[in-house]
Here is the input.
Amino acid sequence: MIDFTEEQLERYSRHIILKDVGIQGQAKLLQAKVLIIGAGGLGAPIAFYLAAAGVGEIGIVDNDVVDLSNLQRQIIHFTADVDSPKVESAKAKMLAINPDIKVNTHSLFINHENVRELIRDYDFIVDGTDNFGTKFLINDACILENKPYSHGGILRFTGQTMTVEPKKSACYRCVFREPPPANSVPTCSQAGVLGAIAGMLGTMQATETLKWITGVGNLLTDQLLSFDAKTMDFRKVTLKRQHDCPVCGDDPLITEVSEAEVPLCDLKAKKG
Amino acid sequence: MQIKVNGEIQQVSEQINLTQLLNDNQVDNPDMVSVQVNGEFIAKEDYASTILSNGVEVDFLYFMGGGQ
Ligand SMILES: [Zn+2]
Here is the structure.
């Protein structure tokens, strides 16, 4: 059990007085290790809230630098950060909110060669990436390394999220077998996204992460939550793990992560 | 007959198949979605041969790839 300092008791007092979290829940948060993949629209609110909550060790992966067009939604990056590495910009803000935590920066492009080793050191993974190739890569790696994770996707005025507990609940491939053909589904850089949508979905992913760590409530497993901000309709669709899933099924075809097919439009749009 | 599409009741003609339902619901490209009928996923190649019956629940799960 952690000995809380006076400052920690004060800093985390609103968690500690929460009946379901309490001092034990806060101790779990301080001992947890979470990896956020992508320091962009989703990664920004996720990083802010996990840092503020006192998640003890947070890794953040991104190989990009801050671009002026990011600032409309990637609220962890400020105007003065343009051209700085996103992971360094994010780390500075996270430590400014909470110097009580440790932040690991991974300034690299996640791929089939590094993903498994990268996630191995963490308890829970959060997907804040912007292309299907990487989303499938993260799903497969998390299943193979037995790491629970939160999937998130946004587009225009809509968002979706699900939490995956490997081999216990439906995974991303149980729902979406393989990445859609290039250009059949637009990316945010092609179709746009309302900035606050990233905040809506990212805070949901942060909440799921905090729930997983503390064991509070029921996770968004075996369910896909989606919303349309134009109507503010929220909907949960019940899912089940598919026995013929190529990665988490009974007889999986995917036993190793393979090179993600990143469509050319995504590569070109990477800065966007 | 009546079916439920994404949680909402729709009036559709008898013998409608999944391809027609996708068209009627402005899903121009079947690659944009994954489809469940009564909680079971239907393979894309089976859309045209999947005839919907009265009272079924159909869910379109859309690909959303953004995050940055
Ligand atoms: Zn699966």
Q: What stands out?
A: The CA atoms of residues 208 and 219 of chain A lie 6 Å apart.
